[in-house]
Amino acid sequence: MRRLAKDRLAGHLMALLTITSLLLVVAMGIGLYLKAAPILQEHSLWELLSASEWKPMKNQFGFFPFLMGTLWVSGLALLIAIPISLLTAIFLTEYAHSMVRRFVFPFLDILAGLPSVIYGVWGMLLIVPWVSNVAGPWVQRNTTGYTVLACGIVLGVTIIPLLVSLFIEIFSNVSHELREATFALGATKWQTAKHVVLRKTAPGIVAAIVLAASRVMGETIAVIMVCGNLAIAPGSLLDACYPIPALIANNYGEMLSMPLYESALMFAAFILFFVVLVFNLFSRLVLKKIKE
Amino acid sequence: MSKLFPHSLTKGKEPFFVDHKFPHPENLRLSTHALSVYIGGNQILKFVNAEIPQNKITCIIGPSGCGKTTLLRTFNRLVDTIEGVKLEGVVMLGEQNIVTASASELTEIRRVIGLVPQRPCPLPMSIYDNIAYGCRIHGISGRKKLDAVVEYYLRAVGLWDEVKDRLHSPAGKLSGGQQQRLCLARSLAIEPSYLLADESTSALDPISSRTIEELFVKLKKDYSIVMVTHTLRQAKRIADHVIFMYMGEVIEEGDAQQVFNNPKHELTRKYLEGSFS
After folding, report:
1. Do B110 and A175 touch (CB under 8 A)?
2. What is the pLDDT of residue B277?
């Protein structure tokens, strides 16, 4: 009797905790929205999103540069990270000897666990000078190096270990029998990986990419260190940028005496929240489509 | 020639695999000489000498763990997927030693020696693509050609009428027995000379299992079939040639009638009587 009561109690408790964490998401969204409400009363949503002027002193709040900054940087980071991670994971699961795997896995875990500030420092020391001294001159452009390109590279590298670990996990779930079935037809490892493993795991790959994308869009510290922090919508890879998380982290707590400033930053946070949410929901739809 | 290249029947032209590395498929004898297989230091096969007769069903029988499956998987070198495996001795396919074959020769050997898996294992694609896949990876393309191949081999395994209206739906939606026939058709579509079957009916219901058996009997006209089986009754039903293995060694090999009715070796007799399994 007692163990049944315990079981029921544990069940209820865990359900309660689950609901709490779910409600937390909703509460955050509502909280951000309420905080952002003042600026939405003064300016229309469309105006805020499409205007390019960011002059809080003059009551001009255009979020377009930040939105674009986030999109450019995230897009570039994923563009860099996805192919590298996919090929690395394919190598490790399909080609590499188990000795290599045993040697590489701990490194991946360490890399995945490194604080992003370290990636930021690495970016400042290596990537920013490289962009300024090599990539810029190569296309005859003068640049400080604090650019979309540097930011994209740093962010891309930040998520590679995460993506590789996820992909490896996903690929390892493909049954041995399936691989044998295609080997037995005379398929090479590459043909097996391309036609069978990737196809079988497509939903998982999409899910992993979404996870990585959400992380990239929200990454803050490493971004602040290499993005240039200029509130201009970037027009090329060699322009500075100012993604949304950097805006919030740089300014919150500083000039809050200015009217509407706090509300504006909360609105920025709300945009980020909303974008990540929509992105995740959208990916669910894609996943459902693929699974069919 | 034409019996090994049934595609030519469907097209009335030259076979699809004209330039493969075995110019005389009718002389592709398969045999092992002093074959030993070690896995992680354990000797799984001990100096196995065996000869696979052509256009017959050869059953490898023996108690669990005697090395039947290892022997079977040495023929197409699928043992390579096991970590720490080491091969010694010789497995000859025509003029080619399978044991020392390079990666590129292996893909060709595996085309000539097909496999029907233990459990039905459709590839994650449509019914049509499951059959066409093997042809595609060996460089055969062209809608019309592939259409012909797919229809021919689906008919060969008696699946055509059941699936012709849903060729492009996922193969995973077929029943177990249908999936296994699909796997058989998939193996046949790359025109092998040999078919390896690793207890290919063990995961099926009795009726589907019987269907596969009947197909094997029909197919031996064009293919040499080597199957591992746990069920003696099955071996007695369809085997022409029997290899009895015990503890990694071939104890007795010979004509099915002779082995089953008049075994030469004491161990074989005991196994057939059911003294151990």
Report:
1. no
2. 67
